[in-house]
Amino acid sequence: MTARIHPVLGILTGIVFLFLLAPLVIIVGAAFSDTSYLTFPPRGLTFHWFANIFAIEAFRTTAVTSLEVAFLGTGLSLLIGVPAAYALNRYRVELPKWLATLFVLPILVPEIVFGFSLLKSITIGLGLPVLPSLILGHALLVLPYSVRVVGASLAAFDFSVEEAAISLGCPPVKTFLTVVLPNIRAGVIAAFILAFITSINDVSVSVFLTGPGISTLPIQILAHMEQFFDPTIASVSVLLMLVTVGVMAIVEATLGLTFLTK
Amino acid sequence: MNKFAKWGLTLPATIAVIVLLLVPVILTIATTFDEPKGPFSTYAAFFNSGFRVNILTRTLRIALITTSISLVVGFLAAYVIAQMPGRLKSLAIIAAVFPLLTGVVVRSFAWLIILGKNGIVNDALTGLGIIAEPLSMLYTEGSVIVAMVYLFVPLMILTLTGVLEGIPRDVIEASSSLGAKPVATFLQVILPLAVPGLIVGAVLVFTGSFTSYATPQLLGGERQMMMGTLLYQRAMVTFDWVGASTVAAIMVVITIAIVAIMSRMARRLNPMAV
Amino acid sequence: MKAIRIATLATVAALAAAGFSASAQAKTLTISWWGYNGEKMTANIIEPFKKICGCDIVFETGNNADRLNKLKLRGGKGVDVIYLSDSFSQLGIEQGLFQEVDPAKIPNLADIYELGRAPQGKYGPAYTIGRVGLVYDSAKVNPPITTWADLWRADLKGSVSLPGITTTAGPMAVMEAGKHAGVDPYKDADKTFEAVTALKSNVVKNYNTGSELVNLISTGEVRVAMAQDFTLASMQAAVKTMTWAKLKDGDIATLNTVNIPKGSENADLAYQFINFILSKDVQQKEAEQGVDAPISTKVELTPDQAKIWTYGAEQVNALSRIDYAKMNAAKTDWIDRWNEVFGQ
C-alpha cells in the first residue's frame, strides 16, 4: 500500500514520535549523569553506570540467561504459534471460535496469577528444572503475539494464491514457505519483536519461575534497586535499546533489508 | 490431509495453553468457590465494598480510554509509516519500539521530570505566563493514562503497520480510479481491511492496560489504585491467594466480555474479520 | 522446511541441555536472599564459608514477598537458609514454613545484642539492625523535626511521603498514628485511622521502593519522609540538606533475620552458615564496608564508620520494637483502611 500522505497527517505523526521519544531523551541523559541518583539534565558525564552493569557478575550472568530465555522462548512460541495462526485463518469457517480466544489467554489472565499458575503447573507439576521452566513459561507468555499478530497479517492474505500453487503441484510445506511466508513476513517480524521485548522485560512470570542459581536480568535489576537508587537502571534501558538496534540490524541483514517494505 | 492440517497445526499450541495455563488457572480460581461462608461469598464481599467497586470502574475507564487513544494515535502513525520508503520505515519502527525497552522505574522517573511540579511542562506553562501556580499533574488519572498510552502506542503501531502494508495497492487504486474520494476510499476500503489489525491491537492494549500493575503503582500512587495493584497486595503482601484469585476471576470475566463485544462491533465493519 | 527442522532440533536440544545441566553436586547450600551487593557478599561471606564447609553455594534472589511466596508454594522446600526482613519472617513463621532453631548449634548467638537472639520466638536470629525514622530537608523545613507528631504539622502540607502500607515500614506509620491519637492501634483502629486521615493533606505520594523515594526527594516533590536508614545516603547525595531527625520518642527497630525452612535438606550446613555470619570477623567486615549494620556486640567501629549505622548499646536500646505477630494479624484490615484513606 502506498499513497500520498497529507501534510497534516505527517505533522501529527511527527507529534506522536515526539511524544514517544521525549522521555527517552531524559532516560539517556540520566544514564550518563555523574550523580549517584537519577537526575535530568545530567550533571557531569560518566560511563560509570554502564561499566557497573558489566562489573557486577550477577548482571552479566542474568543478562545471558535473559537473552537465552528470550530467544528460545520466542522461537518456541513462533514454532507452535505460526502454524496455529495459519490454521486459524486458513480454516476459519471450520474451526471452533473458542480456539482463537484460547490463544489470547496468556494476556487475558493477570500476570501475577499467570506466573503463580505456571509455577504450580510447570515447576511443581512437571518437575522441570528452572531454565526449561523459564523458557516454557516465556513461550506461553508471548504466544498471543505469535498467534494474533501473525494472524492479523494472514487475515489480509489471499489463500487462493496458495491453492493455485498447490494445484500446480507445489508441495504444501514448500508452498507455505515460498508463497505464504513471504507475504506475512512483516507480521512475523512484528510478532518476533513484540514477543522478544515482552520476554526480555518480563518480571511477573519470571518472579515465580526463577529459582536457585538462575535469575533473569529484570529480576536482578529489581534486586539491585532494593538497595541502590543509582542511574544503573537508566543505563540498562539504554543498553537494551542498543541491543535492539543490533538485533534489528541482524534481522535486516539475514532476512533482507527490505523486510518491512516488500 | 486437510483434516490433519486443520487440527494438527493448532494442536501443539492448544495443548500447551490448556495443560500449562488453562487448567492451573481454573484450579487457582476454583479455590474462591471453596469458602466456608458459601461459594460466592468472596465475590459478594468484593461487590459490597464501594471502595473496591470504585477501583473496578476506574480500571475499566482507564483501560477503555487508553485503548481508544492508542487506537487513534497508533492507526495514524502506522498509516503514515506504511507509506514511508524502506530505510525511513525501518527507522520509524525501531524508534516506535524503544519506549517498550525502558524499565518501569526509569520511565516513571522520566514522567516525573516531564509532569512534576518542577517539571518541563509546568516550567514552560509558567514561563509563558499561561498559569501562575504549577499544576499537579502527577498521581492523577490523567498521568496514568498518559503513561499507559505511551507504553501501548508502540504495540498498536507494530500490529497495524504489518496489516496496513498487507492491503494491496491495486485495491486502493481501483477504488480511486472508480471515482471514490480519498476520504471515501479510506472509510470504505482501507478501514474495513484494517479491522483485523485494529481488533488485535485493541485486544492487546485493552488487556494489557486492564491488568497492568507497575505503571499505575508508580504514576498513580494509592490515589489511582487499579485492579492489578489490588491483586498484587492481596497475593504478595498478605498471602491471601483466595482474595487475589477472586480479583483475578473478576478481571478475567470482564476482559473476556469486553473482548467479545469488541470483536462483535468489529465484525459489523468487516464480516470477514475473526 | 530445512530451516524449520533445524530450528526445532535446536530448540529441543537447548531445552534438553538446560534440563540436564542443573543436576548433580554433592553438598550444596541453597541460600535465599535479596541479591544486592553480591560482590561484597561473595568476598566477605561466601568464599570464606565455602573454604570452611567444603560445599557449594547456590542463590535464589528476589524481594521478601516473592521469595516467601515461592517457598510456601514449594511446601517449604528447595532452600536451606532464607534471609528476610522481620515482618516477612513473622509471616513465614505463621505459615509454618520454618524450623525451630536450636540455640546450642549457634554459639555466636552469645555475642549479639539481646534483641537479635530470638526476636520471634524459637525461630531464626537477626543478623543486622536497622531503624525507621523521619528524614527532612533542613534547608526548607523550619523548625526542625523532633518528634513523630511533627508529621501532622500544618506547615508540611503537601510535602510528606510515607512508606506504602504494603512495604516493611508502612504499618509502622499506622502504629505512630495510633500513638499520636493516644490509642492502641491494635485495639482501636477507628481512632488510629482518624489520625491517618488527618495526615492525608500533608502527604504528596507514598512510596513503595527506596528508589521511588529518592526520586521524589531529588525532584523536590517531597521534603519530609518516613524512611529506613539505608536510604539516607542516597537521599543526601541528591539533596545535601536531607537530615535524619533526632526524635524524642525514638526510632523504630527493624531486624533482618535468617531462618531455616522446614524442607531444608542441609540443616547442619545451614546452622554452620548462620553461626558464621554472626561471627565477629564477618560482622566487622560487613559493617566497615557499609553493607550491613553490625548486631555483634564485639564489633568495633570508628565514629566515621559508625555514623551510618545504628551502633552501640545506647542507640540499640533506644529503639522501639514492634510486635509483628499482632501487626500481621491487623495488617489485612489496615491495608483496606489505608487504601480507603489514600485511595479517595
Description of the molecule:
The complex is a heterotrimer of chains A (262), B (274) and C (344). Chain A is an all-alpha fold and 262 residues long. Chain A has helices at residues 7-31, 48-55, 57-90, 98-102, 105-108, 111-125, 130-155, 159-167, 172-183, 185-201, 204-209, 217-227, 232-255. In chain A, helix 3 packs parallel to helix 7 and helix 3 packs across helix 12 (217-227). The longest helix of chain A is centred in the first third of the chain and has 34 residues, at 57-90. Residues 257-262 of chain A have low confidence and may be disordered. Chain B has one domain (50-269): MetI-like (MetI-like fold), CATH 1.10.3720. Chain B is built from 13 helices and no strands. Chain B is mainly α and 274 residues long. Chain C starts with a helix and ends with a helix. Mean pLDDT of chain C is 89; it is low at 17-25. In chain C, helix 4 crosses helix 14 (324-342), helix 6 crosses helix 7 and helix 7 (189-199) packs across helix 14 (324-342). Chain C has helices at 2-21, 38-53, 64-73, 86-94, 114-117, 170-181, 189-199, 210-218, 232-238, 267-277, 280-288, 303-306, 313-318, 324-342; strands at residues 28-33, 56-61, 81-85, 126-137, 160-161, 224-228, 242-244, 252-259. Chains in contact: A-B, A-C, B-C. At the A-B interface, helix 1, helix 3, helix 4, helix 5 and helix 6 of A face helix 1, helix 2, helix 4, helix 5 and helix 6 of B.
